[in-house]
Design goal:
Layout lengths: L11 E3 L1 E8 L4 E9 L2 E15 L10 E12 L4 E8 L8 E6 L12 E5 L3 E5 L5 E6 L7 E6 L8 E6 L3 E6 L4 E7 L2 E2 L2 E5 L4 E4 L10 E5 L5 E5 L7 E6 L9 E6 L6 E6 L4 E5 L8 E2 L10 E4 L5 E4 L5 E4 L7 E6 L10 E6 L4 E6 L4 E7 L2
Antiparallel strand pairs: 1-28, 2-31, 3-4, 4-5, 5-6, 7-8, 8-9, 9-10, 11-12, 12-13, 13-14, 15-16, 17-18, 18-19, 19-20, 21-22, 22-23, 23-24, 25-26, 26-27, 27-28, 29-30, 30-31
């Protein structure tokens, strides 16, 4: 069911027109899009959900962190979106924190796969009908799998890196359905025995061999780290940038720019986006001049240099390709950056269409950038 309500006077909308708005059964937190390799006019858009189903409380608390995934098909010619398949939230699906396709731009050499980082400490793997192919348990009840990314430039696209709330990173072989490498990656400076939640992780760029062996991780300790994973036996920290964002705020999102060599984008809980040259993390190449209203939980680069962000209470933002990253477009259903729905997921569909999802109002939206 689609829903397109007229904008309220309290909305902050500039440069974005709502194409469609679809309510969901659970809180929405992640969006991942890619072209259908069998039909370039069709884009596959996955929307992941997470919600805490409250229990009785106390020692025998039976609260559940449930989830769901819905897959849409968007036709770039008609600008119509239709639901293709869905994982039923009542069928023992754990909450979904992050998702990735095994190939975002080029046609994969093998079958197209969608991996999800889940609240039950596992990685779930789905096909394009959202049939579950495998479920790789990594940390069980010890914590959550928070983010993941596929290894770039790999012929069979069968390895992913996974970050966890336990401060660990795992490299998972999906064919073997097991972790083949893991290490403690983030901990608080005042207490090395206290792990920091690793909110985001990214594995190199598929367009550049120069970064294809690097894993970038960011956590609520405010630290950005780069890891060299060429050795099958261990990962080596090659760079560490403390206070990667203002006031030691946590690093919420990372993306290796798929169109520019050596470039890494980060979104912070300080409400800013930064661009880094991975050859040296000493100083960011570029930083947004003002806060974007909330923690930037998703950051996505476009081929022309623009940047899309999901900025929690600040809504969805599109930054221009200019050197100062001026704000080109915004969608927020509140003034003064206090949108309580929380914008958590966003991705480019085409150079004029973006998808976004928000948490508390349980909405999936499609926007078109105004010319």
């Amino acid at each position: 069911m689609s829903l397109q309500a007229p904008p309220s006077a309290a909305f902050r909308i500039k440069g974005l027109r709502v194409l469609d708005e679809i309510p969901q059964p659970l809180c929405c937190d992640s969006i991942e899009s890619r072209v259908d390799p069998n039909d370039p006019s069709q884009h596959l858009i996955a929307c992941g959900m997470y919600q805490l189903r409250e229990g009785s409380g106390g020692a025998d608390d039976n609260s559940q962190r449930i989830g769901s995934i819905v897959l849409y098909r968007f036709n770039t010619e008609t600008k119509q979106v239709v639901e293709s398949s869905r994982v039923d939230e009542n069928l023992n699906c754990a909450g979904v924190f992050d998702m990735k396709w095994n190939s975002r731009h080029a046609s994969p050499l093998g079958p197209l796969l969608l991996a999800a980082a889940c609240a039950d400490g596992a990685v779930a793997l789905f096909d394009t009908k959202l049939e579950r192919l495998s479920n790789v348990s990594l940390i069980g009840n010890a914590g959550f799998c928070l983010a993941l990314d596929f290894e770039p430039q790999q012929e069979n696209l069968q390895r992913i890196c996974v970050s966890c709330s336990t401060g660990e990173i795992h490299v998972v072989d999906l064919a073997a359905e097991q972790s083949v490498l893991s290490w403690p990656a983030h901990w608080y400076a005042h207490d090395s025995s206290c792990p920091a939640e690793i909110w985001t992780i990214a594995w190199g760029s598929s367009s550049s061999s120069s970064t294809s062996s690097l894993i970038a991780s960011g956590a609520d300790d405010g630290v950005l780290k780069l890891w060299d994973c060429r050795s099958p036996d261990q990962a080596t920290a090659v760079q560490t940038r403390r206070s990667a964002h203002d006031d030691d705020c946590g690093v919420c999102s990372l993306q290796f720019d798929p169109y520019r060599d050596f470039t890494l984008l980060s979104g912070g809980y300080d409400g800013k986006i930064r661009m880094w040259d991975v050859r040296s993390l000493k100083t960011p190449v570029r930083t947004t001049g003002k806060k974007l209203g909330g923690g930037v939980w998703r950051v996505r680069a476009a081929q022309d240099g623009r940047v899309l962000g999901a900025c929690m209470r600040g809504g969805f933002r599109v930054l221009s390709s200019s050197q100062d990253w001026t704000e080109e477009a915004i969608y927020s259903e509140a003034k003064d950056d206090h949108w309580e729905a929380l914008a958590y997921g966003a991705d480019w569909i085409t150079d004029r269409v973006v998808a976004g999802c928000s948490f508390y109002d349980k909405r999936f939206r499609l926007f078109e950038l105004e010319k």
